[in-house]
Amino acid sequence: MERVKQKGKKHIGKGWILLAVLVVLAGVAAALVMLEKAPADIPEEIVDEIKKQEAVYVTRIPEGEIMALSVFPRDYTSYELQKNGDQMGMLPDLSLSLRQDVVEGILYAAGTMQANTVLGPMEELPATAAEFGFDAPSLRYVITRTDGRKTEVMLGDLVPATEMEAEQYYCMADGVVYTVLAEPCYPLYHNAEYLRSFHQPSLQSDLIDRIEVQGTLNMTLQYTPDGFVMETPVKYPVQSTKMDAMLTYIDRMAFEAYLGTQEENDLAALGLEKPRITVTITQAPSHLEGVTAEGESVSMDVGEITYTLHLGHDTGRSGVYVGWNGGVYKASNFLFGFWNEIEPEEFYSRTPMNFPVDRLQSVTVEAGGERTVYEVEMVEVIGEDNRIATDEYGQTLYDAQVKKNDEIMNTAAFLNWYVQLNRMAVSGIGERADKTGEPVAKLVIRTDATERTVVFRPYDALHVWLEVDGTAVFYTEKGVLSLLDALP
């Protein structure tokens, strides 16, 4: 036990009880100093003593004096850290690269443990060591100092507490029993593999070209300039909001711990020999530019990159074993669980004709025995000074020019009609088996990258199938067909 200031004698039980009271009230002391007055029900002599009292520490050993630290968690793999030059390494391989920020947190938690209360010497307490959980401690650690001295600390059971109280552990060091707040102890409860350094996924969601999911779920998503489209299990445009959410989840993917290479692990035991889900992500080629520390401009081309993700068994603690580009990791289901919750139907676009006007080349409508072609061209806006107009950022401004069957038509009328068309939403997922009725109307929308064909077929008396690029998933109200009437 180490303390800044010690009062009383160890063999006097009442002294330890008084000290416990003082430590419990230590938090009150700060408030008393701030308010410069004490509540009336606290005797003045106790208030004066509290103001004099300094914090009590179970351990107070600077990191620089720690030569080695052996940690024995009850529910995790034990490990031993040992000074290796100016950093700590982990036995048996001191050359193994460690996450030094995690190591520093562990050393601080072990070497600077503050007591919340002091219960007294174990031999003077009415309870047994087993009643505090010291017969099978949740964690035990031993600090070896540079001068060879050793300090052993045990954390037993959690202290029974009300919902309003912070979690505390019973703690014993040098034969003295304390309670300590649980939260500052959490770094000590890491498993050994949590200390190994590794690189987090370096995906750039704005460069993702393709996502293939196989296993308990089969789905393929492909990027196009007009948004993602689903290729399997059916060919269908993807709802942009759903895709944006998925890319956000991918951006947030992060591992908790590195378990080593695939060769170092029993893949079958981790569920990675035959993973339940395999995800292949293709990232498009890119060009990087930057400036070195010396101020020199540099640039480089990065080719297409393919990442492979395997999801194995659950770890049993709200986590999952993950295979990633040759390595094996532990990860939280909070960050990776979204792969298990994917439902392809949720990705089907509910507004499959929603293309921005500036992407349009043409819209062809076949309805009521007529075929009407609307051609759209974006032309530069000419200002009053006969110069090309620009916005506040210097970007050229464009207006749409529309032809109907090769004749110029009113642009505003077309735009008003097209806004209604691309807002056309589905009514529900069709359950009827017959999807082959004679078409009642057809719509073809072309951009410089996409040709989308929408065929309307009979569904029931009030609805029609909405067949998109050969796939009929949804039906919509029959009344929307009036939108396909030719514009004047």
Largest sheet descriptor: 9 strands, antiparallel
Distance between the termini: 92 Å
Query: Strand portion, in percent?
Result: 35-45%
Question: What number of domains?
Answer: 3
Individual helix count: 9
Structural class: alpha+beta
Oligomer: single chain
Give the structure's gist in a few sentences.
The chain has helices at about 15-25, 25-35, 45-50, 100-110, 130, 240-250, 335, 345, 410-420; strands spanning about 1-5, 55-60, 65-75, 80-85, 85-90, 110-115, 115-120, 140-145, 150-160, 170-175, 175-180, 210-215, 220, 230, 235, 255-260, 275-285, 285-290, 295-300, 305-315, 320-325, 325-330, 360-365, 370-380, 400-405, 405-410, 430, 440-445, 450-460, 465-470, 470-475. The protein is α+β, with helices and mostly antiparallel strands and about 500 residues long. The chain folds into three domains: about 1-195, no CATH class; about 205-345, Sandwich (Immunoglobulin-like); about 355-485, no CATH class.
